[in-house]
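Feature request disguised as a bug: please show the residue count (188) next to Phage repressor protein in the output. Example input:
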Amino acid sequence: MDFNSGGKKAIERLVEAYGFGTRQALCDHLGVSKSTMATRYMRDIFPADWVIQCALETGTSLNWLTTGHGSKQASANTNTIEVEKYLLSDGALQKDGFYIFDKGFLPSTFKKPLVITDNKSELICDKEFEDIRDGKWVISIDGEITIRDITRLPGGRIFVEGGNRAFECKIEDIEIIGKIISLTVKFV
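Example output, currently without the count:
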């Protein structure tokens, strides 16, 4: 993150976090002049001191105040992890919020977890992996994202099945997005 910029958006998030309607109300609360606020806003100077104060006073997530990403409300439980959630629709992944998990629920070996949902299931995946092994994977075939079973073959080849037709290819012929660790199926 570049703390030499991003002031405008951060100030707008501060206004939202406090529940104010204007930057003037934020000035009054922080005890700063309108010109100080205007300088930081117009020059896009990141207001680190105000962001910290707001996080302490409101319980708003420091990550959200700083970057605009993640859940707005900070978790009171430090044994939780916030995991990005994506919707798989028409062969593409679209950001769809976040899930908060107890750290004990997810394997400690997870490096970059994500959740992918579609109309019938929820998949907990790890985007960072050391090797491709037999199992369920999220892959991209010619830019279309799909869930498939992969079997590792000799010579750097894999067998891909789970779609209309199974096929064999080199690992480099497809893009591996993540290893599926857990699958929850919806029966409703």
